[in-house]
Design brief:
- The structure is a single chain.
- This protein is an alpha/beta fold and 311 residues long.
- Helices cover 38% and strands 15% of the residues.
- It has 9 helices and 10 strands.
- It has helices at 20-25, 46-60, 76-88, 102-110, 131-147, 160-176, 192-201, 246-260, 266-280, and strands at 16-18, 31-35, 69-73, 92-97, 114-118, 151-152, 183-187, 207-213, 240-244, 287-291.
- A 6-stranded mixed sheet has the order 1-2-10-7-8-9. A 4-stranded parallel sheet has the order 5-4-3-6, with helices on both faces.
- Strand 4, helix 4 (102-110) and strand 5 (114-118) form a beta-alpha-beta unit.
- Helix 6 (160-176) crosses helix 7 (192-201) and helix 8 (246-260) packs across helix 9.
- Bound molecules: pyridoxal-5'-phosphate (PLP).
- Pyridoxal-5'-phosphate binds next to helix 3 and helix 7.
Length: 311
């Protein structure tokens, strides 16, 4: 045990847990492994991308001392950036759809960020952020970046996002599993986690699967925007796709909490539902790993821990 020079050094290196209780109860043929990235300082896996993008930009000189950072976020990337920017002395502006949960905005503000909330597109429902909502947030993020002569963190384009997972998340899972993981699946937002992890995993023979929602309006915050041609997934050799419903994601997040004591959000549930389906199908007998993308604490105001939880 050592003393870290800042909380930035506490990002990554998260535990990998064997979900033996769920595997037994579901009579799975194989192992289900959860990477607890909700234990990062910002309570999500996006801390990793935030750190790598900001450190690379500072090293290249693209981001100068004291310069403002701007980003479009569903809350998690913004929280990671707020932490990294607070430590390194950059003002940070998070631009987020009003459709994301309120606790995300509060957490970013607590970490010193300025949060700009963008109203949802006509007819959209709170808690369900669509590609159309995201286009409005993008427009506002661009405007603020120009106005403030800021550095745009740009998680959808910058190499630091997948890099964080190619050099962090995936090698950690590989080493922690004793090189036994055979498949990995991830719910796609920017595609940074899946694209980066696949860059490390595929040459080792680990099959990588995309997890997508079954429809455009869904409650799985952080992804499922149905954006064509994501930069981080271009040329990535995926083994297939798994589709999950919002109800399945919620039910599996509740199961994960109740059975394994792991308190994740909707996308953790989506990933687990997909991993179980893979172990019941093409990955039978294997060892499937997935990421607990963020903490269940970020959904206390939503339906996730509401009435359905009592069932
Ligand atoms: C909770 C949550 N799940 C999943 C994702 C998708 O991850 P990625 O952008 O690496 O595809 C995000 C991204 O912000 C997220 O916040």
């Amino acid at each position: 045990m050592t003393v870290l020079s800042s909380v930035i050094d506490a990002i990554g290196g998260t535990p990998l847990v064997d979900l033996a209780r769920i595997a037994d109860a579901s009579r799975l043929d194989g192992r289900l492994l959860a990477k607890l990235d909700h234990l990062n300082p910002g309570l999500s896996k996006k801390d990793r991308a935030a750190r790598t993008i900001v450190e690379a930009a500072r090293a290249s000189g693209e981001l100068t001392e004291g310069q403002t950072v701007v980003e479009l976020t569903s809350g998690n990337m913004g929280t990671g950036l707020a932490i990294v920017c607070a430590v390194l002395g950059h003002p940070f502006v998070a631009v987020m759809s009003k459709g994301n949960s309120e606790e995300r905005a509060r957490m970013m503000r607590a970490l010193g960020a300025e949060v700009v909330l963008v109203p949802q597109a006509e007819g959209a429902r709170p808690g369900e952020v669509s590609g159309a909502d995201l286009a409005l947030v993008e427009e506002e993020a661009r405007r603020i970046t120009t106005e403030r002569a800021a550095f745009r963190a740009d998680q959808f384009a910058r190499a630091g996002n997948p890099e964080a997972h190619a050099t962090g998340t995936a090698p950690e899972i590989w080493a922690q599993s004793g090189q036994r993981v055979t498949a990995f699946c991830d719910f796609i937002g920017s595609g940074g986690t899946l694209g980066g992890a696949a860059r490390f995993f595929v040459p080792l023979g680990v099959r990588c699967y995309a997890v997508n929602p079954d429809r455009a309006d869904h409650p799985i915050q952080g992804g499922g925007y149905a954006m064509p041609d994501l930069a981080h997934l271009r040329g990535v050799d995926l083994a297939g796709d798994v589709t999950v419903t919002g109800e399945e994601a919620a039910a599996h997040a509740r199961l994960l909490a109740r059975t394994e004591g792991i308190f994740g959000g909707y996308s953790a549930g989506a990933n687990m539902a997909a991993a179980i389906r893979l172990l019941q199908g093409p990955e039978r007998g294997g060892c499937v790993a997935f990421v607990v993308c963020d903490s269940g604490l970020k959904y206390l105001s939503t339906d996730l821990w509401g009435q359905g939880n009592a069932e």
